[in-house]
């Protein structure tokens, strides 16, 4: 098998390098879009309160927008903002033709009903891809016609960012998904279920494993592709992995580590050192799925702008 | 293993008898609801044109309503009705507090955009359970809390009727779903995907098989529970079935049969005679899943009326 340029010489899938490649593609497409139609994609980011982590994430997203040629619009609110004021801002952004994507940075303060605010975002501007109507589209197998061609770059709706990132990592590291057996570990709304739907749309035969699965290791060991998104540190052991399988680790868990200066270290849901010896390819944590999420956010924003031009962005 | 009263003496799951039992339960609950709150559940049925089959289905549904104590309201439109008039009727029914469920009999004439009419139905009155927002709720694992108790009779939204019928047939014939391996054959929006989601919510470990699956028979043979919903006559053969598995056949296919008076006969997606010898339990076609769909429609209407009372029927 040829070694794709986007992965390093060994069997580690380099999420940072693949995300960088995708950001380069987006930059080129933004430039072409500007030239052909005069349109610059726009992302509105809403930040409430002064959580350091949220402020960091927002800064990273805005910087990423600037680098690829997407306009960003940042709106700061104090932590005592009312739900009504936030919803009014979202409604204003829904109506603004310069805004193709709206991102409300989570978590919101406790007095605000998060889902209510998120559901206010027009599905066509929901670049996180978590609106129920976007999830339902992903489950809608007939949408994609009898050819069953399913191309993430031309979907008529927004698919969730982290799940899309998993698919890109699998495909760009040289694995064809169609016809493979895949196992998704975890059934969360934001990762497990959309990853299942994406793999199924890509014509894999997919099984979802969860806390009530009997003999999870035996079920997992059938898989050519494993996506772990369960949030339990190093749960997936080498004897869960079929030799040669592709392993994508969505987990980010903090574990105590007295030898580290910070007193802890970050690990995935997969026992990386052990599984690396069995897997065909594997993502590290950090540096695997993580960098892909922002790249997919940028791509969703670009696609939203393109759909707007073709008249598909009404609602 | 004890033989439940709802199945016949051999290993055939009697859908007609189980549907009858459920209709009896609904009748009791409707009587209790009337007594406690003065409310009678109401189902509006909209029929367009004069297709004989559609008229028959509508008549069956209205008769079933009468038998259990649900009000039915029938609206007939000529086949040249405009889309706008149909949508106006749905909007009127959305606003009518005596109507808890709205059913638009399909197919609609070609000049009407079916999905547009269906999407007009309020999700809370979509007793067919096919509205995208209802499908998204079914995919929403967090809705059901950490106890993971998932009770079809108290869902806060409408799940699709035929898929619900499959679950009832499995459970009422004495099979516990939790922890089992299940395989769904077919990934349609109206059956395969919702059946997958329901089995997953019921804590089975579920795999979806489809046209691009390699070695489907081997994958199917792992399953303790098989739901076939692919629309191909007798595709599932005895060597696909693990001895003792529960087999639910959603297919209804017409095949030529010169020995029959009508020249054809109805068969499922499962080779019934062959698989019956291997399966622990199996549904026939007809008389298996078919009778369950109307029973689930009645139950959705009843649940809609109950939710309306508790203030959960706003939108």
Automatic annotation (TrEMBL), chains A, B:
Q: Which residues form the Tetrahydrofolate dehydrogenase/cyclohydrolase NAD(P)-binding domain?
A: 160-307
Please name the GO terms of the biological process aspect recorded for this protein, alphabetically. tetrahydrofolate interconversion
- Reactions catalysed according to its record: (6R)-5,10-methenyltetrahydrofolate + H2O = (6R)-10-formyltetrahydrofolate + H(+)
Organism of origin is: Nannochloropsis salina CCMP1776
Superkingdom field: Eukaryota
User: Does NADP count among this protein's keywords?
Assistant: yes
State how it assembles. Answer: Homodimer.
| CDD domains cross-referenced by the UniProt entry | NAD_bind_m-THF_DH_Cyclohyd
Family label: Belongs to the tetrahydrofolate dehydrogenase/cyclohydrolase family.
The metabolic or biological pathway listed in the UniProt record of this protein is: One-carbon metabolism; tetrahydrofolate interconversion
Q: What is the lineage of its organism?
A: Eukaryota, Sar, Stramenopiles, Ochrophyta, Eustigmatophyceae
Q: What is this protein called?
A: Uncharacterized protein
Q: Keyword set for this entry?
A: Hydrolase, Multifunctional enzyme, NADP, One-carbon metabolism, Oxidoreductase
Q: Does the keyword Isomerase apply?
A: no
Q: Which residues form the signal peptide?
A: none
Location of the Tetrahydrofolate dehydrogenase/cyclohydrolase catalytic domain: 13-128
Q: Care to name a GO molecular-function term for this sequence?
A: methylenetetrahydrofolate dehydrogenase (NADP+) activity
Tell me which GO cellular component terms the UniProt record holds: cytosol
